[in-house]
UniProtKB/TrEMBL annotation:
Domain Mandelate racemase/muconate lactonizing enzyme C-terminal: 176-273
UniProt site positions, description: Increases basicity of active site His: D301
Lineage summary: Bacteria, Pseudomonadati, Pseudomonadota, Alphaproteobacteria, Hyphomicrobiales
Presence of keyword Magnesium: yes
Name used for this protein in its record: L-alanine-DL-glutamate epimerase-like enolase superfamily enzyme
């Protein structure tokens, strides 16, 4: 880098303090990790519970990361785990967090690599990268706050609101009367679409539930289903064909999450779009779906794939293949990423995480509105602090 000219320095006084070759002087001074346990109001079941693979979900473990620089810039991020894994993520993050101290917080991609290789012995996917996700998201939040921009604007937004659908009304643990009641309520409140769970031992029960929802909401209202990896290939093909007249906006996780070939065959056989990807925990795993034409909608989860830095790679690959996108869960992060995706996506409205933050997201005319606050646009609530069961700090607050 050549030394700045006097005219450049006059236009940007910050540059006067920089030595040639040094783009910034600020450094990460403090990192705080917190593990909080968020209780759910009612235990939740999907198809994985019906088959005995998993227990009903009663709580979500949240790994928060807060970062402050020597100059006082601040950012926070989070990742999460359902059922087991939260304490493991916290333990892994605790071991590697000191790698951030003294680093330039702007160099997020390089820091991701550094954190990843610090713990690469346990892999570059899964729990190891989910621990990094909280730190990576905190760095992106800091960068956007420093620029005084919502994260969507820092990334470069294609839209200032995103179509929003709701999942919370259609769990298999809810009787159909309750599902219908909540679908009607959601539509009245202005949601853009609803998704209900399927994957009952008897597919006829699923079909009856979907038909009832379709009848209630009308032919044009967006309705999707989610089988949570319950079906084998023949069942998915058979139920998928039976669902074609329902005009669903997608069938989600019809098959095992790693069956890229099975999803590709199903996507080719059905008119109804196929969606999957939420259970995958790396860019490499998503690349399998993308290159095999396995899906119409790719469903990455920034917390699961290692944060925003990795999510952006999936966005680029998916866009190149012409895929649509509907990220999984964590709307507080994904709203910004959806706003920056070139093809009109869907964001999943899940109110579970709302008690963790002081601010809430607004839904208007079926769309979730990008908040006009810097960064992700959230403050960690006192309630989240009260639910915190462990903390760990590196470095010193300025
Ligand atoms: Mg799902």
């Amino acid at each position: 880098m050549t030394a700045p000219t006097p005219a450049t320095i006059a236009a940007n006084p910050l540059m006067a303090r920089l030595a040639p070759g040094e783009a910034t002087t600020d450094r990460i001074a403090w990192v705080k990790l917190s593990l909080a346990v968020l209780p759910l109001k009612t235990p939740i079941s999907d198809a994985k519970v019906l088959t005995g693979r998993q227990k009903p979900l009663t709580e979500v473990a949240i790994l928060f990361c807060e970062i402050e620089s020597a100059n006082g810039a601040f950012g926070h991020g989070f990742s999460y785990s359902k059922r087991a894994g939260g304490p493991g993520m916290f333990a892994h993050a605790k071991e590697i967090a000191n790698n951030l101290i003294g680093e330039d917080p702007n160099d997020i991609a390089r820091l991701w690599e550094k954190l990843c290789w610090a713990g690469a012995s346990v892999g570059r996917s899964g729990l190891a990268v989910q621990a990094i996700a909280a730190m990576d998201i905190a760095l992106w939040d800091m960068k956007a706050r420093r620029a005084n921009l919502p994260l969507a604007k820092l990334l470069g937004a294609h839209r200032d609101s995103v179509r929003a659908y709701n999942t919370s009304g259609g769990f298999l643990s809810s009787p159909i009367e309750e599902v219908l009641e909540s679908c009607a309520r959601l539509k009245d409140k202005g949601i853009g679409g609803v998704k209900i769970k399927v994957g009952q031992p008897d597919p006829m029960v699923d079909l009856a539930r979907v038909e009832a929802v379709r009848k209630l909401l009308g032919d044009a209202f967006p309705v999707a289903v989610d089988a949570n990896q319950q079906w084998d290939r023949p069942t998915a093909a058979r139920v998928g064909r039976a669902l074609e007249p329902m005009n669903l906006f997608w069938i989600e996780e019809p098959l095992d999450a790693y069956d890229a070939e099975g999803h590709a065959r199903l996507a080719a056989a059905l008119d109804t779009p196929i969606a999957t990807g939420e259970m995958l925990t790396s860019v490499a795993e998503h690349f399998e779906l993308i290159r095999n034409d396995s899906v119409d909608f790719i469903q990455p989860d920034a917390g699961r794939v290692g944060g925003i830095t990795q999510f952006l790679k999936i966005m680029a690959l998916a866009d190149f293949k012409g895929l649509k996108m509907a990220p999984h869960f964590a709307m507080e992060i994904h709203l910004h990423l959806c706003a920056a995706y070139p093809r009109e996506p869907w964001v999943e409205h899940f109110d579970w995480l709302e008690p963790l933050f002081d601010e809430t997201l607004e839904i208007r005319d079926g769309r979730m509105v990008v908040p006009n606050r810097p960064g992700l646009g959230f403050t960690i609530s006192d309630q989240a602090r009260a639910w915190t069961v462990a903390t760990h700090e590196e470095g010193k607050r300025g």
